[in-house]
Structures are given as structure tokens and as C-alpha cells.
Amino acid sequence: MAYYVWHFFFFTAILYTSITAQQFEYRYHECTNSSTTNSSFPSNLNITLSSLYANAAHKDGFYNTSAGQNSDRVYGLFLCRGDTSPELCQSCIKTSSEDIMKQCPDNKEAIIWYDRCMLRYSNRSIFSIAEQRPTILLWNANDIENVMNLNQFNASLGDLMNQLVTSAVSSSDLFAMGDRNGTAFSKLYGLVQCTPDISPSECGICLSSCVSDIPGCCNGKQGGNILKPSCSIRYEIYPFYTASPAPPPPASSPSLPTPPTTSSNPSGKRNTSSRAIVYITVPTSAFVVLLFTLFYCYLHHKARKKYNAPEGGNGCRKHRECLILLLQIIFY
Questions:
Q1: Is the terminal CB of the chain with fewer CB neighbours within 10 Å at N or C?
Q2: Residue at a domain's end among 214, 236, 258
Q3: What residues contact 282, with CB distance under 8 A and at least 6 apart?
Q4: In this structure, what are the phi and psi dihedrals at residue 272, rounded to the nearest 5 degrees?
């Protein structure tokens, strides 16, 4: 039994690792400034990468840190895509850290991009510096079908990119995503982002440079991805980002009890008046009839006494009639 349980957990762990590795798309990496042998740079790099990973669960998706002294000091930072959850961000940084150590084992400067995050380190300060090199140009392998569609596509793409760049430089996190209708395709989706340690004006310059790179790499293609250390853009004809949840509907005011009907509703007023008339008139009428009956019985009894009417069936009948009439009035 223990044998099968052990195998179950073993294959579950393999499946989980495979799924985790496949949820991030590798884009590109670049290694520069070789030779880290006979120095403390490798140990400082490990400290830096560990610190980046530990802080990757921050909700803002950006962090920078450094470790070491002088020429062996390591500066590192990461940026997660603006639509990425803290959990996915940390997982992407873990994958990037492990991959960059394999790809650039002896380099003092390196950068790696995945679809969800970017990670870089260097032996020089890279904080709050807008950098556009290296520039990586990636494109969708599928072509736009004809010239008419291409013209519509390019017009919509230009409008979308201008809109997103304007939104990004106006936002606190220098990030924007959105879509646009009106092309030969149902929708065009786009995303732009800068590292939040540069100024909005620097972000605008960097993103505009990415947009100007589109014709040279991606003209006639259904998608493109321009990557720079300080900014990036991407567009596709399919949704590739996680859409923001729709805002909840405004809270409805608690329903108030219906007010009494006024003259603006004649029907309601008539109903209310009719009920009032019934409740008041019936007891009043009964009381008047009761008084009249008592007075009638009193006169009849007095007349019988005055004329010495013999007690008999007729007298009893008259008394019974008075009694029955009284009972009917009381229980009306």
C-alpha cells in the first residue's frame, strides 16, 4: 500500500512541476560582461536573486535590491506584468532566477524575459535609469491576409497604441492594457508597461520607441512583442492578458415601505375611504337600531301593563320577537 501511495505523490509532484513550468512562456535572454571567477560576485548574485524571489509576492509587482561591495556588488530587479497576481509573479521570478543562472553562469550582467515577468542583474547600478538596449523584436508568425485588412489593422493598431501609451504615462504604475474594435478581426488587444522606477516622461519616450519599432519587425503580422529593459509593448488579435474584473454594481438603496396613498392615486384613495366608512358606519347604525328596538319593547311592555293584556301566547310571541331582534343586532 505504501508503495502505491509513494508513487501517487511522486507522479503528482512531477505533474505539478510540469504545469508550473508551462504556465510561463519564455521570450528571450541576453548575457554580457563575462568572467566572475575568483570573486565574491557569484555569492552576492545568489543573495540578490534570493531577495528578489522573497519579495516577489509584493502586490505592486516590482522590486530592486543589491548585495556586496565595490566591483563585486550585484544590483538586481524584476518587473511582473501588470495583470499578474502576486502568486504568479513570485512563481515567474523563481522560474526566471533558475533559468538565468543556467543561461548566464559566468556573467556579471544579464536579463531574461518571460511573458509574465522580466528579471535582470548587473555589477553596475541599474536603478532609476531608463534603458532601451538591448531591444528584442518578436512577432506572431501569422500574416494579415490582404492589403485592405492590413490597412485597417495598422490604423486600429496605431490608435490603440497611442491610447495605451497615453494611459500608461498617466497611471501610477506606468501600465495599461486594452482592446479595440473596428478591424477586419473582431478585436485587437494590446498591453504596454514601464518599470515604475523611471519617470512618466522617460516611460513615454521608451514606449514611443517601441511603437516606432513595430513597422521594422512586425508589419503585416497578427501580433508583435517589443522588449526593452525599461519598457515593453505587445499586441495580438486574441486576448493574451488577464482582464480586470468588472466593477461591482452600485449598492441599491434599501427599499422603503410604501407610503400611504395620496390624492395622486384616486383609486387607492377610494379604497381607503370605503374601508373607513364601513368600519365607522356599521357600529353606529347598529347602536341606533338597538336604541330604537329597546324603546319599542319598552313601549310595548308599558302598553301591555296599561291595558292588562292577558299573558298568553301573543305576549310571549312579542317578547320572543324583541329578544330575537336584539340578538340579531348584537351579533350583526
A1: N
A2: 236
A3: 332
A4: -65, -45
Smallest CA-to-CA distance from 79 within 215, 238, 195 is with 195
Q: With cut-offs at 50, 70 and 90, classify the pLDDT of residue 140.
A: very high
Q: How far apart are CA 112 and CA 26, in angstroms?
A: 8
Domain extent at residue 216: 136-236
Cα(160)–Cα(233) distance, integer angstroms: 11
* Domain boundary pick from 180, 208, 236: 236
pTM: 0.69
Percent of the chain past pLDDT 70, that is, above it, reads 65
> Amino acid identity, residue 73?
R
Going 318 to 323 to 329 to 331, the CA torsion angle's sign is: negative
108 and 146 together in one domain: no
For residue 87, give the C-alpha cell. 502568486
Beta bridge partners of 175: 193
CA 323 to CA 321: how far, in whole Å?
5
Cβ atoms 79, 62 nearer than 8 A: yes
Per-residue confidence band for 34, with pLDDT thresholds at 50, 70 and 90: confident
Length of the chain: 332
C-alpha cell, 35: 568572467
CB under 8 Å to 231, separation ≥6 — which residues? 132, 192, 193, 194, 195, 203, 206, 207, 209, 210
State whether the Cα torsion 252-253-256-261 is positive or negative.
negative
Question: What would the pLDDT profile of 57-70 be if each residue is shown by its tens digit?
Answer: 987 899 999 999 99
DSSP 8-state assignment for residue 70:
G
Is residue 64 within 8 A of residue 49, CB to CB? The reply is no
252 to each of 246, 248, 322, how far by Cα in Å?
17, 11, 64
**H helices present in the chain, as ranges:** 2-22, 41-54, 86-103, 147-170, 200-218, 266-306, 313-330
- What span, in angstroms and rounded, lies between the C-alpha atoms of 75 and 114? 20
d(CA 51, CA 78): 11
